[in-house]
Amino acid sequence: MITRRNSIQLLAAAAAGTAPRTTWADEKPKFPIGACDWSIKKQQDISAFDVAVEIGLEGLQVSFSTPDSEFDLRDAKVREQYYRKVDETGIQLASLGMGILNKMPLATHPESIDWVEDVIDVMAAMSKEQPDKAPHISLLAFFGEGDINGKPELMEAVIQKLKTVTKKAEDAGVVLGIESLLSADDHLKIIDGVGSKAIQVYYDSANSLRMEYDIYEEVVQLGGDRICQIHCKENKGLIGEGDVDFVKFQQSLTKAGYEDWLIIEGSTPKDTGVVEAYQKNFATLDNLFRK
């Protein structure tokens, strides 16, 4: 069946000179493919949908920041704009992402846990307003000033703070995904310490490989029921042209029982434009995971 979404994406593919690809109309496929709005240079900007169509993506991870920032999803009118963009483009809201926690860490900043509570409230509201368009996952970032790797006292502070919001998250049916430089063992310490299925791991292929973890074993160790979403990323080039063995990674994710969103992050060489790079990244993941 050719839907508006199919036709838009086929036109985008034709304009870009790429081969048409299969999209889904009513049923989400295994390993749907999206990208972070910040990686396509449209952080917390609704025009990210237009770039996503040009690339040929299937979904977006959308930034969630401090109150009153531009395109703040706390505002019902802003959420309506996003719903309309989903209808117009067929691009799904795969998840939200709280990169703000890299600058205002969850472990130490006094207001950060309030913002996490806000993101839970927003996803709950979206589920009531437009259940077929609502994201159910938000990434919690732990990099830069928010890094907790090798800092047990900060890990414990995160555990205690997350305990205060997990009941609300469970009731809302949403998941908070920890993306960090922690090993699988340390991620499990946080998950077990909080004691809630609402806390999972947002696994990043390149970050973990850079830390010299065995990413192929780690995803199996964590299992598909504790990995809420995946960042497919290369630090040194396009996907498939760097250090991550994505053939092996796909095999490991399948073994782990994970078949959900693959969100492209980074993976843009300096001499390649974002749209061109992400079309190539999409094609590589499509071929490796879905052919």
What is the compact description of this entry?
This protein is of the alpha/beta class and 291 residues long. It contains 11 helices and 8 strands.
Give an overview of the whole structure.
It is built from 11 helices and 8 strands. Strands 1-2-3-4-5-6-7-8 form an 8-stranded parallel β-barrel, surrounded by 5 helices. The protein has one domain (28-290): TIM Barrel (Alpha-Beta Barrel). The chain is globular. The chain has 291 residues and is an alpha/beta fold. Strand 7, helix 10 and strand 8 (262-266) form a beta-alpha-beta unit.
Given this structure, which CATH class is correct?
A: Alpha Beta
- For CATH, the homologous superfamily is named as Divalent-metal-dependent TIM barrel enzymes
Low-pLDDT runs: 1-24
At CATH level 3, the topology is TIM Barrel
Layout of strands and helices, then pairs:
Blueprint: H1 4-16, E1 33-36, H2 48-55, E2 59-63, H3 76-89, E3 92-98, H4 112-129, E4 137-142, H5 152-163, H6 166-172, E5 175-180, H7 184-194, E6 199-204, H8 205-210, H9 215-222, E7 227-234, H10 246-256, E8 262-266, H11 274-290
Parallel strand pairs: 1-2, 1-8, 2-3, 3-4, 4-5, 5-6, 6-7, 7-8
Helix pairs in contact: 2-11, 5-7, 9-10
